[in-house]
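TASK: fixed-backbone design
INPUT:
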């Protein structure tokens, strides 16, 4: 990726906009932005696959992603069952077998690669929208952002300064155990600081919750990052795209958030709501 100054510059420009959309009383602007981000990440993935000779189905993928996310995009105006539209979106891709003009020898690969990407971004991405629909959902999303960004920051600097032992050499040779520990410690410090500073968090979470969520969001955020690294390496790509200077593509920026969003959602659902 690019230089540290580029990364910081883009972050300083993008984070205030994201927070404004997140805390806006009207949820639709945030939801549409989240959908656009997921769609761009999906298209980045499909483009990486296309460059490796896997002719994907971009239009069908975009339509299927909308079907999958529509119950949460359009709430409170509709009350569709999310499971039904999820299956409808994937069924749309399955029907691509019938109308696709791909040669038969390419068809299974083409549809399967497209199917995986759509299920991946739709299946994980819908939890951004579901978190926002919770009471005080904007504050839960802020908690999610803070934990994920703290882990990225702590992991980056701890790995750069002290990294010696590789975490997952095949998936991401630069990731280290020292970086993972540094990321976790910064997440723990960040979430405890927010817990003390924001009355909502003090009311909802206990100190035990803060520690457990710090651990869970660190672990699953790292898994999301490693999964994306594996996808990129299998498709011979360094970054998913070049839309965000110094950061790569949208997929590069939301890889950890994709795994952390369902973790936080179900933690709240099972233990707090």
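OUTPUT:
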């Amino acid at each position: 990726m690019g230089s540290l100054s580029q990364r910081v510059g883009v972050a300083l420009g993008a984070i205030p906009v994201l927070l404004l959309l997140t805390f806006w009383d009207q949820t639709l602007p945030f939801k549409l932005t989240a959908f656009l981000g997921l769609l761009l990440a999906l298209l980045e993935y499909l483009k990486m696959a296309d460059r490796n000779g896997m002719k994907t189905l971009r239009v069908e993928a975009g339509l299927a992603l909308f079907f999958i996310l529509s119950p949460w995009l359009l709430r409170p105006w509709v009350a569709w069952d999310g499971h039904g539209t999820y299956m409808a979106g994937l069924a749309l891709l399955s029907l691509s077998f019938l109308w696709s003009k791909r040669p038969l020898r390419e068809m299974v690969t083409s549809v399967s690669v497209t199917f995986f990407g759509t299920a991946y971004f739709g299946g994980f991405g819908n939890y951004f929208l579901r978190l926002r629909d919770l009471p005080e959902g904007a504050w839960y999303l802020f908690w999610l952002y803070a934990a994920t960004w703290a882990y990225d920051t702590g992991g980056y600097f701890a790995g750069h300064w002290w990294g010696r032992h590789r975490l997952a050499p095949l998936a991401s040779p630069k990731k280290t155990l020292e970086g993972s520990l540094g990321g976790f410690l910064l997440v723990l410090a960040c979430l405890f600081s927010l817990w003390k500073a924001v009355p909502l968090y003090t009311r909802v979470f206990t100190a035990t919750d803060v520690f457990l969520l710090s651990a869970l969001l660190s672990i699953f955020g790292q898994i999301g990052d490693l999964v994306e690294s594996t996808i990129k390496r299998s498709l011979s790509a360094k970054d998913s795209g070049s839309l965000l200077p110094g950061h790569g593509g949208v997929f590069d920026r939301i890889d950890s958030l994709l795994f952390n969003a369902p973790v936080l959602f179900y933690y709240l659902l099972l233990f707090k709501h």
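COMMENT: The CA atoms of residues 34 and 128 lie 7 Å apart.
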